[in-house]
Amino acid sequence: MNTNEDKIELSEEEKMVDHAFQELINDYLATNHRKRTEIITKAFNFANQAHKGVKRRSGEPYIMHPIEVAKIVCNEIGLGSTSISAALLHDVVEDTDYTTEDIENIFGPKIALIVDGLTKIAGGIFGEHASAQAENFKKLLLTMSDDIRVILIKIADRLHNMRTLGALLPSKQLKIAGETLYLYAPLANRLGLYKIKTELENLSFKYEHPDEYAAIQKKLDDTAEERNKTFMTFTAPIHQKLDKMGLDYKIIARIKSVYSIWRKIETKHIPFEEIYDILAVRIIFEPESLEEELNDCFDIYVTISKIYKPHPDRIRDWVSHPKANGYQALHVTLMAGNGQWVEVQIRSKRMNDIAEQGFAAHWKYKEGGGGEDEGELEKWLTTIKEILDDPQPDAIDFLDTIKLNLFASEIFVFTPKGDIKTMPQNSTTLDFAFSLHTDIGYHCIGAKVNHKLVPLSHVLQSGDQVEILTSKTKRVEPEWLNYTTTARARTAVTSFLRKKERRYQRKGEKILNNFLTKEGFNADSSTIDKLIQFHKVKNKNNLLASIGKKNITLGEEQMTLLKGKQSPTWMKYLTFSFGNKEEKKLKEKPQQENEDSLKDINTKEILKVTEESLLNNYKIATCCHPIPGDDVFGYLDENNKIIIHKRQCPVGIKLKSSFGNRIIATEWDTHKELSFLVYLYVKGIDSVGLLNKITEVISNQMNANIRKINVETNDGIFEGKIQLYVHDVDDVKRISSDLRRIKNIKVVNRIES
Predict the structure, then answer these.
(1) CB-based contact 176:162 (threshold 8 Å)
(2) Contact (Cβ atoms closer than 8 angstroms) between residue 43 and residue 153
(3) d(C-alpha 586, C-alpha 593), whole Å
(4) Is 296 noted as a catalytic residue in this protein?
(5) How distant, in Å, are the alpha carbons of 316, 688, 695, 708, 725 from that of 692?
(6) What is the DSSP string of 411-442?
(7) Nearest to 640, CA basis, from 658, 618, 607
(8) Are the CB atoms for 81 and 28 separated by under 8 Å?
(9) Where is 116: in which H helix or E strand?
């Protein structure tokens, strides 16, 4: 019996939990909120008792997770006692026998509403073809429209899960990291939680691409001293001038995140050494009054632009026109003494708080705070409500519609009367029409932008003045989907087209029923299936719509088909099945068996990609062309085939966030037996024999097989794309390194295609 040892261990756990909770109380007491510690303590005691004896995968008591989420809610988002209490209770209904009614009886309706919203997100029954994650996200937004604190606590919950992701299986890590990058990071950004958004991106990147993360972090560490010297030299004369102005201010360095650096390396095809905006400078000041805030921003700008020359095209005024997520600052780029451009962000303390904590910094529900008019957020929530009122048939379509607005940067557009409207970047005149009113969008025929006539597809620029032209007879066309970029416009167009399609379906159903009755047939599933197969349409709805539109005319051909008389033309519609009965049984396995085989696969830590597996049950994704050495994952499709994707592949990211239960952690194990096609981009100064030197390095020195070379020379600049076969990423690195050694070659990068 080790009773004493057990008691000591339990006592240590209790000490750890009590210490963590006391830290939370101290953090809360240090805020400006009303000091309502009784409700927080009550919520902690209740949750601690409910989760008693339960451990996380890491071995910690489960209650440590709600405490850490509550700390994030308090310190990093800035919410008060109601939100902290809800964070402590957020898993009680989901994981224990307590109900929402119990929470309401003990803690009141406000906390119960939030906990209920968080519980709805966590679970539920989903349609056969729907993605669980997409449905969860849909519920998240539905609940968010009731109380914004639900989504803020959910983001805090996700942040703590990402901070402790190391304890999970690799397949779970990939699923959660992919979902975080696809949904939660842009959502945090849209709600103004810039700091949290950056950490979510970095943590996702760290688990998806550990080697690249470590390499960039090492380079940042190695160049830290040099950056610090640059910062001190650059800011010294600024300090002198601002001190003379008598401002209450501080200057801090802002370092670009590892994920942002990697994104720039990937999209711009440049090495780490050529990224010049890793360091930015932030000036944060305390104005004497709110009225002086804007003037102080521009006074500081005028002062520092006398020390360093500003870049004329890189001034961003988000002070006069805040971003849709509430962000305010004045950004200027100055030429430093060492010849490098340095971005300077000028903000007041209030603006900085909003940039760090988003709408929570002044949200109308905030305990102890006033109720401000959150105009832009209300608009965004209204858009989401409109989308939810007309739900998409597929949860993934819904997700994409919402994401259109999550990722968007803003432009400012003027109405003919001079009113300013905020629109997502790349918005068209048609988007603008729908933003004014759905009926204006439906009847839009074009627009005048800056007094010039433009079509529906015209992309708007910041500062444009737009007048929408309408016609009573104009109606929505299917091609309008090509002209819409905002969630609101796309939803309205899709909804209209779907209603129109349903009218054709009803008309088609009437025509089909009359035809079948007249010819003596029943409108049963067997008859419908024959017609679907014969006309090569997707399903019954498509068949009915085609009949309603008169794209399919019912007559002799259909009668012959239904009576079973096969004409010679029937041969092209027949499907032949070969193989023994066992093979057929395997192919006809029900969905449940597929799911069971998936569970078997996911119990393994990591699946190896070998030569044999590639020849049999695995397949390389054509969207991203992964090769051995790339960070990859497997996706089990409906046919039990495992598709290998790069982790950063856009299609792959969507799969991870939408079908997380079908994701398999995967590693390469091909031993340089197979060859894979890759694309290299080269650029440099044109010179005699340059192409010859390139082919010599690839074919002779590296013994790689070139498939195709495209080269072009303009004004002395040489540009080319090379298709070649390699065994793995190491081959690509060696070839790229040797090509860079050729005189006049300036850029060598692997590209997708």
Answers:
(1) yes
(2) no
(3) 10
(4) no
(5) 47, 9, 5, 14, 18
(6) EEEE-TTS-EEEEETT-BHHHHHHHH-HHHHH
(7) 618
(8) yes
(9) helix 109-122
The DSSP secondary structure of 700-736, one letter per residue, reads IIS-PEEEEEEEEEETTEEEEEEEEEESSHHHHHHHH
Instruction: Select the CATH number that applies to the domain covering 376-492 from these four: 3.30.360.10, 3.10.20.30, 3.30.450.20, 3.40.50.1100.
Output: 3.10.20.30
For residue range 495-528, what is the model confidence (pLDDT) as tens digits?
888 888 888 888 888 888 888 887 777 777 777 7
CATH fold for domain 10-163? Hypothetical protein af1432 (1.10.3210)
DSSP annotation string for 165-214: GGGS-HHHHHHHHHHIIIIIHHHHHHTT-HHHHHHHHHHHHHHH-HHHHH
Q: Which of 13, 27, 95, 467 is catalytic?
A: 95
**Rounded to an integer, what distance in angstroms lies between the CA atom of residue 21 and that of residue 42?**
12
Q: What pLDDT does residue 134 have?
A: 60
- The upper half-sphere exposure of residue 478, i.e. CA atoms within 13 Å in the direction of its Cβ, equals 3
Element (H, E) at 38: helix 37-50
CB 632 within 8 A of CB 664: no
Given 3-state DSSP classes, what are the helix, strand and coil percentages for the chain, each rounded to the nearest 5? Answer: 55, 15, 30
Phi then psi dihedrals of residue 678, to 5 deg: -130, 165
Rounded to whole angstroms, the maximal C-alpha distance in the chain is: 97
pLDDT in tens, 727-744: 888 888 889 888 988 888
Residue 243, classified by CB atoms within 10 Å of its CB into exposed (0-12), middle (13-18) or buried (19+), is exposed
The beta strand positions in 612-659, using DSSP E, are 618-620, 632-636, 642-646
* Residue boundaries of the structural domains of the chain: 10-163, 222-362, 376-492, 496-570, 676-751
Q: Is 95 a catalytic residue?
A: yes
Q: Report how far residue 402's alpha carbon sits from residue 134's, in angstroms, rounded to the nearest whole number.
A: 11
Question: pTM higher than 0.85, yes or no?
Answer: no
Instruction: Give the C-alpha separation, 618 to 613, whole Å.
Output: 6
CATH superfamily of 222-362: Beta Polymerase, domain 2 (3.30.460.10)
- Are both 222-362 and 376-492 of the same fold? no
Residues 6 or more apart in contact with residue 64 via CB below 8 angstroms: 16, 17, 20, 56
Pairing of strands 717-726, 705-714: antiparallel
Per the DSSP assignment, residues forming a β-bridge with 346 are: 283, 330
Give the contacts of 51 (CB within 8 A, at least 6 positions apart). 61, 62, 63, 66, 91, 92, 95, 96
Question: What are the residues facing 345 on neighbouring strands?
Answer: 282, 331
- For residues 310, 314, 320, 322, the Cα torsion angle rounded to the nearest 10 degrees is -140
CA distance 616 to 242: 69
Please, which pLDDT band fits residue 43 given cuts at 50, 70 and 90?
A: very high
- CATH class of the domain whose range is 676-751: alpha beta
Residues 6 or more apart from 344 whose CB is under 8 A from it?
A: 280, 281, 282, 283, 304, 331, 332, 333, 334
> How confident is the prediction for the chain on average, in pLDDT?
80
The 8-class DSSP code of residue 571 comes to G
DSSP assignment of 226-259, as one string? HHHHHHHHHHHHHHHHHHHHT-EEEEEEEEPPHH
CA pair distance 624, 648, nearest whole angstrom: 9
Task: Provide the phi-psi class of 280: left if phi over 0, else alpha when psi is between -120 and 50, else beta.
Answer: beta
